[in-house]
Write a structure and sequence with these properties.
Layout (H helix, E strand, L loop, with lengths): L6 H16 L2 H5 L4 H22 L15 E9 L4 E8 L19 H10 L4 H12 L5 H9 L2 H8 L6 E16 L2 E13 L5 E9 L4 H13 L4 E7 L5 H8 L4 E4 L1 H8 L8 H12 L4 H15 L4 H9 L1 H4 L7 H8 L2 H14 L8 H16 L9 H11 L7
Parallel strand pairs: 3-6, 6-7
Antiparallel strand pairs: 1-2, 3-4, 4-5
Helix pairs in contact: 4-17, 8-9, 11-12, 12-13, 16-17
Amino acid sequence: MARKKDKREKELDGLVDDLLKDHRPEDILNQDGLVQELTKRLVERVLEGEMTEHLGYEKHASEGRNGGNSRNGKTSKRIKTGNAEIEVPRDREGDFEPTLVPKGRRRLPGFDDKVIALYARGMTTREIQSGVMEIYGVEVSPSLISAVTDSVLEDAKAWQSRPLDAVYPIVYLDAIHVKMRASGHVQNTAVYVALGINLEGCKELLGLWVGEAEGAKFWLSVLTELKNRGVQDILIASVDGLKGFPEAIGSVYPKTQVQLCIVHMVRNSLRFVSWKERRVVAKDLRAIYTGSTLEGAEQALDAFGAKWDDRFPMITKSWRANWAHLTPFFDYPPDLRKVIYTTNAIETINAQLRKVVKKKGAFPTPESVRKVMYLAMTRASARWSKPVKDWTAALNHLAVVFEGRVPL
């Protein structure tokens, strides 16, 4: 059942009907059409109201005669929004500061926000140009789009350097790769992402860093920065199987329990297996990490080796080499295990980031990467409101395991 139209919708429909009675659609929407003229009239009416408020009396009122400051003609100004030529009122003392279209600005409020919103969704400069043309009937240059979106860099800088909580029960560390131009060549560049679960059980992006290539050495600098920003303790760090990663974590947070991501481990294991057999091998690997006890997981690994070592010896060799960092999650109840043993929480974010950067091609500078990533992350994190399922019970369990390290 269709909902009833509210008063505002009816008023808008009435205005549209009145416009269409005497005008063709093309006369309303084209470059010199009625919409542009309405924009001009509306802006000028508001500016006249601002001048009246500034002076304290209406236009042509007697108070303005020989009473100090007064109106002093107008100046022409072309605004980008609607591509309209407007007349801006002046005062004799020259201290009138318009708020709708400030001095030095040629865009109405909301224009920059719309451009930034389109940019945050991964739209290319060309697509944004097309969208602005459709909405406002004005062609904007790539340099203007860049200038508008560059305005978020200061926000991104402040966000990246903000103080953090002293303790995070769980922190996920991962990286995605983007293409960036450097010295005339396009190369893969790692973007490092840190996602924390705070004491309330809510996800919190701690920062992002642009590096040349993913490596334990760079992660060491990331962890050091987190420490400098106030993070004194991390109970559990969930990471991929990058060589040297546990040692990098241990050098900054020696008490942190390192949990290698099981999903990454399975994915790396299946690289040694043909497509035809991957489903069967993945099922046998699942028996290792879904067992109820550590002893059961060890038995499942032995059984896997007995079945597959003749054909895929590298799989069990890799699992045994990383066993100490693959199995800490067995110390926790089943509901908490999945939160710990997989970096799916950050993988979900990375998937959203990849969707945004997919259309961008090669980024020209690290700043352009930070700009897009910051906007995409801000948009994604706006939807986070609920804590991890059964977080109260999980935090109580962590408080027992990590005695004295969970603030009361």
